[in-house]
Specification:
The protein has strands at about 1-5, 15, 20-30, 35-45, 50-55, 60-65, 65-75, 80-85, 90-95, 110-115, 120-125, 130-135, 150-155, 160-165, 170-175, 180-185. It is mainly β. Strands 1-6-2-3-4-5 form a six-stranded antiparallel sheet, with no helix packed on it. It has a five-stranded antiparallel sheet with strand order 9-8-7-10-11, with no helix packed on it. A five-stranded antiparallel sheet has the order 14-13-12-15-16, with no helix packed on it.
Amino acid sequence: MKTQANLIRPGWIIEHNNRQWTVLKTMITKPGKGGAFIQVEMRDLNTGSKTNERFRTVDNIEKLTSEDIDCQYLYKDGDTLYFMNKDTYDQFELPVDMLGDSVAFLQDNMDVVVNFIEGRPVGVTLPLQVVLTVVETEPYIKGQTVTTSYKPAIMDNGVRVMIPPFVTAGEKIVVATGDASYVERAK
């Protein structure tokens, strides 16, 4: 299915240069001069090699149709991740590097969507947001809220997130899995 390049999202399976690729990261850039473009980090499904490609946002990309199956993440053992099909209870494994940086957001028993092409798992789509605990951050300084400044924080999964100054260590926050950005305090 042809789609515009600006719609590409992590987890998609695309065909480029007669090869199948899973999209790991995307970043849209709008330079001051010229047209916008999207930088895509992707991994070849057959060889496992990674590459970065730059597409104009108006370019057409071939998105491959995959069968999306609701699964549950079970656990990690070394460089292998274990999942279970929620309908058939069949378990299967995937290499850690298939998920790229998003592997840090996996939590035991998390519901995910695994993409299959011709019966082979080729990608994992995580929930859009997860709840994490702030482990380490700078202390709150009164009067620091004059500007909309953010401060760095380390989450319980090791990911670095920029958070508002009023959030302190030990608090639970909602983080977007796509770009590791702060969304809100957890309720």
